[in-house]
Specification:
By secondary structure, the chain is mainly α. The protein has 2 helices and no strands.
Length: 29
């Protein structure tokens, strides 16, 4: 549950910073 919430928050940040999208997704997975 906590992981899902953290991941969702990360996605929101990524949407604001498209250039870091691939980097954040790579770290998330």
């Amino acid at each position: 549950m906590a992981l899902h919430k953290k991941l969702k928050g990360k996605i929101e940040v990524v949407s604001k910073v498209p250039l870091r999208n691939k980097n954040d997704l790579s770290l998330a997975y």
